[in-house]
Amino acid sequence: EAMEKVGIPQADERFDYYPHQFSGGQKQRIVIAMALALGADLVIADEPTTALDVTVQSEILDLMRSLKDEFSTGIVLITHNMGVVADLADRVAVMYRGELVEVADVRSLFANPQHEYTKTLLVAVPKIRTLSGGPATGAEPTGTSAADREAAPEQADPFADAKTIVKARGLEITYRGGFGKPDFQAIKGVDFDIR
Fold first, then answer.
1. Is 19 part of a structural domain of the chain?
2. Which of 17, 51, 122, 139 could form a disulfide with 135 if both were Cys (CB 3.0 to 4.6 A apart)?
3. Domain named ABC transporter: which ranges (predicted)?
4. Hey, CA dihedral for 154, 159, 165, 167, is it positive or negative?
5. Residue 182 lies in a domain
């Protein structure tokens, strides 16, 4: 039922298929179906639209929005794609070299980024151009140099006093090898807190 809800064709016939029998977009849909089936309160999505074409990317974002809106599922979205951030996020935390450098609601962050790295990420978002080749009305060119980014001041942790809702210590994820191949350890000894 969950596979049908996320748009997998012939879901009742395909529930026991192997991963290689699905496209990249279908694999992402199945992961979302798993979150639906499990009634997950929180989904951590690490680059959920990377390597998907624009149409499939849009469909996956619609499904994630459905999780968020219809099922009140919290989503921690990990991405470098600021277009995806603008489309899906309510609140944004920007990390640079493993450190949290800026936190803001999505509108404030896009309208008035404070940290140089955030500004650099926003400059990387493709701009819409007019037929004459110039920027579209309202598009202001901005940019920063590598030297400016290196000299960015340290900022205090805005979540220092926030309640921890997820705490992971020594997290390990290992995928079993098949057909005589050894197991693959994807994550070893990772610690993190979500506040």
1. no
2. 139
3. 1-50
4. positive
5. yes
